[in-house]
Write a structure and sequence with these properties.
Blueprint (H helix, E strand, L loop, with lengths): L1 H14 L18 E3 L3 H11 L1 E5 L5 H19 L6 E3 L14 E4 L10 H7 L2 H11 L12 E5 L6 E2 L13 H12 L4 E6 L6 E3 L10 H9 L16 E2 L7 E4 L5 E5 L6 E7 L10 H4 L12 H4 L7 H19 L11
Parallel strand pairs: 1-2
Antiparallel strand pairs: 2-10, 3-4, 4-5, 5-12, 6-11, 7-10, 7-12, 8-9, 8-11
Helix pairs in contact: 1-5
Protein name: Phytanoyl-CoA dioxygenase
Organism: Puccinia coronata f. sp. avenae
InterPro entries: Phytyl_CoA_dOase-like
Length: 344
């Protein structure tokens, strides 16, 4: 049954390129954005149309939430003590990150076996996550889905910090025709990206529907004139932008090419899982968007110690890992490992 649903979702994605216009979507105040994970048809419809959807019920119970919180606190403490080198540092929006800044806004590779936190892999490869990301991405988990990134977004200790408005893999300085071409090419097999809040989170801002169209003149001005992450957190307003606020345990799924930005406040604790489930059918040239993150750490998914953290009763999880290891080898051999965004 799920296989047929995935095929139907894939057909919707193939049709999306005809909607690439610069007419923004203005949401009525009553537009529903939040659904229980069992309402998958409403979830998929909202995601396709608006480029984002908020989902409840992906964490099984209070015990699992507490387990994830404890694991998150442990890796943050280790990273702040400089005992874990893979982090996102204040002042830099895209990789590569380094130790030049003493403050951080994210921890990379939290499923790495060296961190000894199996709760993260258990959630990432859970049945609920695999099924829902498959439906959202038009992917059949048994055939198409790959393992991808799982990182942790946290509050800096000493800085207000905001990212600029951006699309994840389309540079802000491309002209309208190139932007339209890139958006159309990303329609197929773009995978699924998501944030899941372990505590209340009001850090993600998005422009609904912007994944389907080129930027308006005002949006182009905002994204090209404000291409530096703001250390003071003084983010620029974007017309029709909204905050994707999350209660503990809620997740927002969003298209990587939707116009979005993050804002970080040192006065509010943030422990938000930031993950992606890529599609193995995507053209190999798109591998750089993922592989750039693995350049410092290496492809640890091939490590037997990582394989041992996978759910033993999930052959699908093992296939997902096998696909990304194979894709990483092919992408690296072809040179698709460089950063795809400006270093801002």
């Amino acid at each position: 049954m799920l296989q047929e649903e995935c095929k139907s979702g894939d057909q919707l994605m193939r049709q999306r390129h005809v909607l690439c216009t610069d007419i923004p979507v203005v949401l009525p105040l009553a537009t529903p954005l939040k659904f229980h994970y069992s309402e998958w048809q409403s979830i998929v419809s909202c995601f396709k149309e608006l480029g984002l959807v908020i989902v409840q019920g992906l964490i099984a119970d209070a015990e699992q939430l507490e387990e994830l919180r404890q694991a998150a606190d442990a890796v943050v403490e280790r990273t702040r003590k400089k005992q874990w080198p893979y982090k996102r540092t204040v002042g830099k929006q895209f990789p590569p990150w380094n130790d030049e800044s003493p403050d951080l806004w994210g921890v990379q590779h939290i499923m790495h076996p060296a961190l000894h936190q199996p709760a993260f892999a258990a959630f990432y490869f859970s049945t609920r996550m695999i099924e829902l990301t498959g439906r959202l991405g038009g992917m059949c988990p048994e055939e198409d889905a790959m393992a991808g990134l799982l990182n942790l977004l946290v509050e800096p200790l000493e800085h207000q910090f905001a990212l600029s408005w951006h699309r994840d893999t389309i540079k802000s300085n491309v002209d309208e025709e190139e932007e339209r071409r890139r958006l159309s090419s990303k329609v197929q097999y773009g995978g699924v990206q998501w944030n899941l809040a372990l505590y209340h989170d009001e850090c993600l801002f998005v422009v609904p529907g912007s994944h389907l169209r080129t930027r308006t003149a005002i949006e182009r001005q905002v994204t090209t004139n404000c291409t530096q992450a703001g250390i003071q957190g003084d983010g620029v307003e974007m017309p029709n932008g909204i905050c994707a606020a999350l209660a503990p345990g809620e997740a927002v799924f969003y298209d990587p090419e939707i116009l979005h930005r993050g804002a970080y406040d040192p006065h509010h604790k943030r422990r938000t899982l930031h993950g992606a489930h890529p599609d193995g059918r995507a053209d190999i040239s798109q591998a750089a968007g993922l592989l750039q993150h693995f350049k410092p750490s290496g492809m640890y998914f091939a490590d037997p110690a990582f394989i041992n953290t996978l759910p033993p009763d999930s052959p699908c999880a093992h296939r997902m890992v096998h696909r990304i290891v194979d894709r990483a080898a092919r992408g690296t051999a072809l040179g698709y490992t460089e950063c795809v965004q400006e270093d801002i």
